[in-house]
Amino acid sequence: MRLVVMCCLCENVYDDMEKEVGNARWKEQGWFMAKYQLTRADIRVSHGYCPDCLRCYRTFLALPPERRGASQKEGLS
Fold this sequence. Notes:
- The protein is an alpha+beta fold and 77 residues long.
- It contains three helices and four strands; from the N terminus they run E-E-E-H-E-H-H.
- The chain has one domain (2-76).
- It has helices spanning 29-35, 51-62, 70-76, and strands at 2-7, 13-14, 26-27, 43-48.
- Strands 1-4 form a two-stranded parallel sheet. The protein has a two-stranded antiparallel ribbon with strand order 2-3.
- The radius of gyration is 16 Å and the shape is elongated.
């Protein structure tokens, strides 16, 4: 069983075996599973944010609530 960190927005997977640093360590889920010959039964998933999604999400949170969209208003009712 292997613990895998997956971005909760784009579903890319953090490759902790990769030697490169930064965004290069975040891989497409299918590529990652094929490279290490894994199936869904072989992994346990922990969620986080990749650097790109984290940057976008922080930008979204910095917006005033009225500019975040209708879905936020619906959730408050």
